[in-house]
């Protein structure tokens, strides 16, 4: 009789309490796994977006560098060197913060170009005569993607005063270090909060006046 009762109890399986405990434990494990998966996915997305941001900034910096290193270039250097006034495109100005003004033969809409930070974007503008400020009339062209907001742009010239070509010249710009900082335009605050800074030193091809 005792053996028969024990067999019946064994055949009843798990009790309701045991099933509930097992269910709760299973849900906890599943929840932990899902949280881990979501965290990994978010981390991967942030890594990809940070890489994308870095590439966008470097691409914009490359465009700036490629144009800026042409500053002072002329079609006939020998004739310009013999001219009384010297190189008419000698000036490279970084007097205004976040802006550089320079010129070269063959510049689009130029010969004078200026690159500056304007409302979260880096823009380039060409003008026919040397601008008196970094806000000339005309329509600038945006450099870089509209998916990236630029928060800082600096042009730091390296100069020397050893042998100025004219008595009134204060310095000679030999190179310009361009530094750009930005972040992604994204509704996700976590991704929009990712910021990167890239920098490159641009060597000017010829010698002229820096202001």
Structural class: alpha+beta
Span of the ends, CA to CA: 109 Å
Helix content: 25-40%
Indicate the radius of gyration in whole angstroms. 32 Å
What is the number of independent domains?
Answer: 1
Strand count, sense and closure of the main sheet? 4 strands, antiparallel
Low-confidence stretches: 162-170
Q: What's the total count of β strands?
A: 8
Q: Which percent band covers the strand fraction? A: 25-35%
Question: Which key phrases capture this entry?
Answer:
211 residues, alpha+beta, four-stranded antiparallel beta sheet, 35% helix
Describe the structure.
The protein is an alpha+beta fold and 211 residues long. It has one domain (47-210). It is 35% helix and 28% strand. The protein has four helices and eight strands. The chain has helices spanning 2-11, 16-68, 77-82, 189-192; strands at 99-103, 112-118, 121-127, 141-143, 148-160, 171-184, 195-203, 209-210. Strands 1-2-3-4 form a four-stranded antiparallel beta sheet. Strands 5, 6, 7 and 8 form a four-stranded antiparallel beta sheet that branches. Strand 2 and strand 3 form a beta hairpin. The protein is rod-shaped. Mean pLDDT is 82; it is low at 162-170.
């Amino acid at each position: 009789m005792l053996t028969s009762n024990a067999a019946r109890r064994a055949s009843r399986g798990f009790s309701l309490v045991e099933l509930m405990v097992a269910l709760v434990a299973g849900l906890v494990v599943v929840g932990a796994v899902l949280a881990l998966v979501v965290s990994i996915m978010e981390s991967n997305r942030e890594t990809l977006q940070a890489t994308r941001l870095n590439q966008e900034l470097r691409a914009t910096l490359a465009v700036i560098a490629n144009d800026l290193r042409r500053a002072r270039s002329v079609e006939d250097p020998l004739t310009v060197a013999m001219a009384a006034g010297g190189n008419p495109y000698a000036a490279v100005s970084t007097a205004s913060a976040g802006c550089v003004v320079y010129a070269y033969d063959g510049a689009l809409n130029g010969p004078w170009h200026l690159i500056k930070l304007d409302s979260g974007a880096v823009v380039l503008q060409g003008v026919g005569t040397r601008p008196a400020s970094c806000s000339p009339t005309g329509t600038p062209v945006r450099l870089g993607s509209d998916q990236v907001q630029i928060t800082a742009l600096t042009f730091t010239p390296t100069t020397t005063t050893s042998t100025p070509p004219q008595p009134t010249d204060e310095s000679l710009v030999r190179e310009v270090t361009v530094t750009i900082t930005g972040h992604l335009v994204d509704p996700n605050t976590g991704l929009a909060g990712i910021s990167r800074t890239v920098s490159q030193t641009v060597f000017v091809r010829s010698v002229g006046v820096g202001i």
